[in-house]
Amino acid sequence: MESTEHQSFIKFLIVWFGQLISTIGIGLTAFSLGVYAFEQTSTATAVALITLFTFLPNIVLRPIGGVLADRYDRRTMMMIGDLGSAIGILFILTMILIGSIELWHIYVGVAFSSVFSAIQSPAYKASATDLLAKEQFSKGSGLLQLAESSKFLLSPIIAGILLTITSIEVILVINMLTFLIAILAVLVIRRGARVDRASREKKPWFTDFVEGWVEVTTNKGVLLLVFIISIVTFYLGFLETLIGPMILSFSDTRTLGMFQSISAIGMLISSLCIGIFTMTKKYASVLVIGLVMLGISFSLIGVSTNLSFIIFAGFLFLASLPFVNMSADVLVRNNIANEKQGRVWGIIGILSQLGFIVSYSLAGFLADRVFNPLLIEGGALSSTVGSIIGVGPGRGIALLFIVGGVSVVIMAAITSRLKPIKLLEQGMETVPAEPVGLMQD
Hints:
16 helices, globular
């Protein structure tokens, strides 16, 4: 039994390593194309559109990828997704090499890659359930988040170095090679899931989608978790879009870069700790504690203009995030049937990302029209709240962070009392302990 679990974890590590390398490659390309577009146009709009075309197809089409992950071999879906993503990068590289590159070529290339990423992502997420024993779910979740954080921490640093010694063409070739490594890693796994998806009764695609939607929406605990994660991404979106204007209102870009790097290290360390140490219970409690720390640290970012204090709070914020994500991940993974997890992760993927979309849409308006005017000289709160956190440019954003953090702490307190969340943890006791989807070699 232990030998089987060990073999399954080794197989998971092989697939995970391939995806870690490809994730770093994706980050290299995203950073480098943004720099390239800005150098060519000197406009932030071009960079923003690259981000949009990279982000939107992946999120919108992820439910389709989830259905495919449940219908067909998840290993095959991952390879198709990585191969298609590489083709999108190859298109951009070809346009550059023949000297005909225009911005719309980059938009088409990254959008094409994003479409195939929507196929790869749910299959990759669900494959962890195929390959891991129940007791290894938390460790696997930590490693998945570690790989994701590498895109934000390692890729910009590596890309910055590469751009000084080589060209954008070389970086695109490196990214395509990282996709090849990911495909080879999946090929190493000789046997995939125990579930015979090929023999499943083939229903209309929409029926499969509806079944996944029903699986999420009729399970109150899972639906509440999706709502909680959506709220977290909502405030994370505020941090991403508004931390720059807040810090730059009284400091410089070097400090902003330090904030982003050190904060990302917090996420990296937490993900690494989760990946090393095994948790088997009390996920609901970890979720609540993580939310409390998340809320407190989010508020702390806004209470002072002391740069060391702000950087510490940012580190604490992103260090708390992996514990929230891991707890939600394991609770869902243990309460959804394996044969439906592709669809479920696809739907959860789009629902949980709605927070980002809403915050990206509202951040500028709330900062410029609502919160900043309250804390300018003579503003409505300048003599009250302003006497504590300061008055002037960017202090309204600080107030927004404080209010957001307090609301997350309140949400954590409510979550600790929710019976459906507690029932999710109780439901884990009925799940078999052996690896759910691995066949003996």
